[in-house]
Amino acid sequence: MASTTTTNNNDPSHSQSQQQTQAQQPVTFTTSTPYPLPSQKFMIPLGWRRYQLSQLVNKALALDRGGNYDNAGGGARPVPFDFLVRGEILRGSLAEWCKEKGVGEEETLEIEYIESVMPPQKMFEFPHEDWVSAVSCYIPGLFLTTSYDGHLRAFDYAHNLAFDRAVHSAPVTSLCVVPFPSPSPSSSNMGEGGGEEGETYTIATASHDASAQILRVTLPSPSSSFNLNAKEKATAKGNGNGKAQSLATLYLHTAPIASVSANARGTRLITAGWDGLVGVWAWDGERVARDEVDVPVPVFGGVDGRDRKRRRVGAGAGGAGDGDGERGEGDGDGGMDGGRGKRKAPANVLKSHVGRVSKALFLGLEEGEGSEKAVSCGFDSTVRTWDVEYGLCIATINASEKPFLDLSPLSHAAPSSPLSSVLAVSTDRTMCMYDLRLPSSSSSTSALSSAATATFVHPSTPSCVASSGSGSGSGSGYQAITGAYDGVVRVWDVRSVKGAVASFKVGEEGKGKGRKVLSVDWARGLVGVAGEFGVEVWRVGEDGGVGGRV
Amino acid sequence: MAPLASGRKTIKRKQVDEDEDAVPPQQELRSNGALEMLSDEEDDGDASSDDGQVDEFPEIIDESDSEDSDYDEEEEEEDDEDEEDENEEEDEEDENEVDESETDADSDDSLHIFPKAKVVTSKITNQPKTVYPEIEPEYDSDSSTEDTPNRVGNVPMHWYDDMPHIGYDINGKKVLRPARGDELDKFLATVDDSSAWTSAFDKNTQSEKPLTSEELDLIRRLYAGENPDASYDPYEPTTEWFTGKGKEEIMPLSGALQPKRRWVPSKWEKQKVMKIVRAIRQGRILPSKPKSTAKFEPYAIWSEPSSSHPPPLPAPKPPLPTNAESYNPPEEYLPTEEERKAWEAQDPEDRERNFLPQKYSSLRLVPAYDRFVKERFFRQLDLYLAPRVQRVKLNIDPNSLIPKLPSPNSLKPFPNYRSLQFYHSNSRARCVSVSPDGAWVVSGDEGGVVSLWEIIVGREVKRWKFEGKIGSLAWCPRTDVSYFAVGIEDTIHFVIPPNIDPAVLSLTLTVLAPATLPPAPTTPSPVKWLTPPSASRSEDTPILTINLPPSTGLPTHFCWHRRGDYLASVSTGGQQGGVWIHQITRRHSQAPFKKIKGAVQSVLFHPLKPHFFVATQQYVRIYNLSEQKLVKTLMPGIKWISSMDVHPSGDHLIVGGYDRKLCWFDLELSEKPYKVLRYHSRAIRSLQFHPTYPLFASSSDDGSIQIFHSRVYNDLMTDPLIVPLKILRGHTVTDGLGVLQVRWCSKQPWLVSSAADGSVAVWCS
Hints:
The structure holds two protein chains of two kinds.
Chain A: H1 12-19, E1 24-31, E2 41-45, H2 50-60, E3 81-85, H3 94-101, E4 109-115, E5 121-126, E6 132-136, E7 142-147, E8 151-156, E9 161-166, E10 172-178, E11 200-207, E12 211-218, H4 230-235, E13 243-251, E14 257-262, E15 268-273, E16 277-282, H5 305-315, H6 317-320, E17 342-344, E18 348-351, E19 357-362, E20 373-378, E21 382-387, E22 392-398, E23 404-410, E24 421-426, E25 430-435, E26 446-447, E27 454-457, E28 462-467, E29 479-484, E30 488-493, E31 502-505, E32 517-523, E33 526-531, E34 534-539
Chain B: H1 2-21, H2 26-30, H3 39-49, H4 58-63, H5 68-88, H6 96-105, E1 118-121, E2 128-131, E3 165-168, E4 174-176, H7 183-192, E5 199-202, E6 207-210, H8 213-224, H9 267-282, H10 337-345, H11 372-384, H12 398-401, E7 417-423, E8 429-434, E9 440-445, E10 449-454, E11 460-465, E12 472-475, E13 484-488, E14 491-495, H13 502-512, E15 528-530, E16 544-547, E17 553-560, E18 566-573, E19 578-583, E20 588-590, E21 602-605, E22 611-615, E23 620-624, E24 629-634, E25 641-646, E26 652-657, E27 662-666, E28 675-677, E29 684-689, E30 695-700, E31 704-711, E32 721-729, E33 739-744, E34 751-755, E35 759-764
Antiparallel strand pairs in B: 1-2, 3-4, 5-6, 7-35, 8-9, 9-10, 10-11, 12-13, 13-14, 14-16, 15-16, 17-18, 18-19, 19-20, 21-22, 22-23, 23-24, 25-26, 26-27, 27-28, 29-30, 30-31, 31-32, 33-34, 34-35
Helix pairs in contact in B: 3-5, 5-8
Organism (chain A): Psilocybe cubensis
Protein name (chain A): Ribosome biogenesis protein YTM1
Region (Disordered) (chain B): 1-156, 304-350
């Protein structure tokens, strides 16, 4: 299922390499991990593979306390490393690599080592009736999914369907968890402490019906969850017993909304629509901080039941959104229509895209208040950086003929530096890394160099990308995962452009269902993969008890 | 000729002299023209002078009596000669009488240029002896070259008339012209010099030159009409060749008469000839039969002398064996397993060596050479006809035969892979249409299902179910409204997709289902426009329905005018001609053609002009709708047209046919196709130009889609550039049907294709 480096201890080439120890290669090691080796030249036998090199680094740094790590007992465990030789992960022996590249024994190889990625392991599986358009692992212990049937679902680690509610009449395309605004931007508390019933979260969803909603979802306490078989539970329909309250409905777009996301402090939301608009919304936790606007009500057919309700809601919009939380407790199949919140106008509309905007998100925190930046990508092959306050396009990256499908920021390990790069996937089967740092000379809106820093080629359309959670993992800041329409999720290290570090297939063959991956999310070592097949959760990155590998 | 000329001159000179002298012979000379008649007189003259000597030639008189004159002349010459001799050789005067007697005996030798030897009786021995005259070196020696100092050669001497000299001597010195006196001097010279009248003017020396006695004799002979050769004897004695003793003929010729049979035709020969004639007539003898019965005659080819060609090259020598040929070669010569396989896989002619090294531990174990006979045979061929037929490899670079087209990589973007697939269950996906904003796809199948799905995700968002096959789908090109037309049997439905903007939705509703219907046309139309009452409207049912006349058939082709108000539909399968143009705002349908020849396959609105393309089975006709007349008829040369599309510029048209041909028309040019592409192996089903990118695609029953780059230049002189870019394969052929329709996404270089296997694929760049 996973194709990663070999971990075979009884490697035949190992013994063979000891026979021909005369062939050696001068090598220097560099790293960006917290385990640096002294910069000196090592003579490495050519027959060595990743395993021996990793052992060498561990021994040299005494990470495994004397080499015998089996009975090391205490907390020190050997750290497995992967080795990058000229931007390529070493898969076979050094001799094979040298032979393939035609490198002689006289040249000094510079090998960068990174902490190895564990072979991904499948953790859970949540089958869905319909395609799942988005998944979020943001909340610990909970997976949120939105589906094409308009439902928002939540699963906990015990495979329980914690919440299931139809939130839109049209397919839901995107989902984000809005952190509660807090005075300190560093602490990101996403749960609201919970009332007597359970924890409460604020969730924003975007839909094909050209609207986005902000919901307050109250989940029941874990104790009250059913104790049934996980699978039954997950497939059971409509037994989520949480409460949902629509706080606001965001009307700006005239076409389906592709994505919605919030900034880290939960003070702003940004939506990207198919009509080329990017909407920025101020949010104070309770209300969209703008006045309500009157929205033209669709009058399809006049007497359609759903539209009649919608019109009634539009007529009585003032009173409907005033926090009657119990209205969200209706039946799971359509009760949300009654619980529409306020219709709010956006704080700012960013207009520059000429095609569909596929993703918009806020860039990371910045110290100076009021200069928050957002980045968006669209089908017009541009990645645009915005000043959110003034609604200006600061910089534009013009890629040629690359309709971008998804975007993910890539925060390098150093937390002090602001966000510098983004990864964008496009329909020409590539993932490109773009540097967002402005050239120092330019002042205002300027075109960034449109050349991608690195290009990662996929065999199929990559539909979604997610980078590892900021600052949490060992390899974080350099790793990203992409999900593609061929049902393969690939783990990339941006320093190794030649191939994926690891990949795994999701969705089972022969079920008559497609295997398209539509959304991935990666947090705390857990990767949620959503697509045609439902949702799968894999453990990637953090060691998570996968021992025996150095 | 020079001597002759000089001779004549001499004669002339003589005449002049005679005239001057007024001597009696003047009469003879004057009657020169009747030379023969006067010969008698001359004879008489001569005879009178030489009477005494006639008697001394008794034999001659006996034999010939008619030639007296000749004889006399001879005698005269002899006399002259003798006189001269006497003048010159005075010391022989004493022997003259003896000489004369002997000269008479052999008169043949009477005339000699050189002094002849004389036989005299020695006074001492009384024996005859031959006495030769003394030779004077000054005159008698042959020094003819010395006495003419002028060496200019035989050139006309009048060239030197104006010169002081008359030529050059042997040393290159000028020969000065001798002084010539006047007429008095001449006269005096003739008086003084007795030989002046026998001298002639020598042009070469420009002086008078006395004629020699030989020359004078020659002149005389010519004058007398005799043979000029003095040694010629007309009276030689005969030589008996055939008569006389011992000369009789041994086999005398018969004097008998010829027998009669010599000139009477032979009957026997006639019989033989008639036999052959009959055989030829009956065909037993073929007159023009090739002589195949000629026996082969061996001849020695080597006996011919060597030709001028270079000798043939010596036969090649077999190479000497090396280590590899050894029965026990060193290990490094043994082939590895890969080399052995590669060697065996190679063509025998391409092998570097015609054997594989093998190792045997001892010579005893070496088997017999298996290719001995063959190798000897080829060796013999080498020796026998050493230049065997050489395989001349074509030296044409195959790349040079390929037309120079730009690389497809430089013409990106174009669709080159299948991004996703959408499946219709168990029925053929007949038609597909992409929304004008390029975000949505509707696809219809033969089961009556119309699905609406996102082009980039492939998730079905909405599904409509109709009765009967879906023949055609077309999204309205207007961007301010959003609906599409669905064609099923005898009916066209108009459907609004869900989840559209309220403003768009309201406008769409006013377009399709206005509150106040436009006035009905005055003439009753067989086409009924139906809008369900507002109470029963829903997203699942069509908002507007056009009921075509019954038995019109299935609308298989829709074409929107670019403004989105007119929709042309082509129905096939019905009895009537199924071309209708529907105007949405007026809710009115009209048939533009009362009667049309042939079954209409496809219609198109010109993107810019009020022109209307109608493709029947074999022709494409262009009508001007505003002027109501035929503009042009295009003849693609296709047996059965299946589809056509017009370039967004309106100047080019592509037509595809069921006979695999794709024709590109330049409408500015002729009605014959500019280019005919025949790249599909089965019938072409659908083709379309991309609205913005320079691309067009064609789909075929062979299950493939072909993408072409088609750049059209504004410059009328530049031909359109058509480059085949990509063949997209992935649809399976079901029941002989392949890809039924292709449509482009308007904003991106993406292609949507629907196939008979029920799948609809999106091809991305």
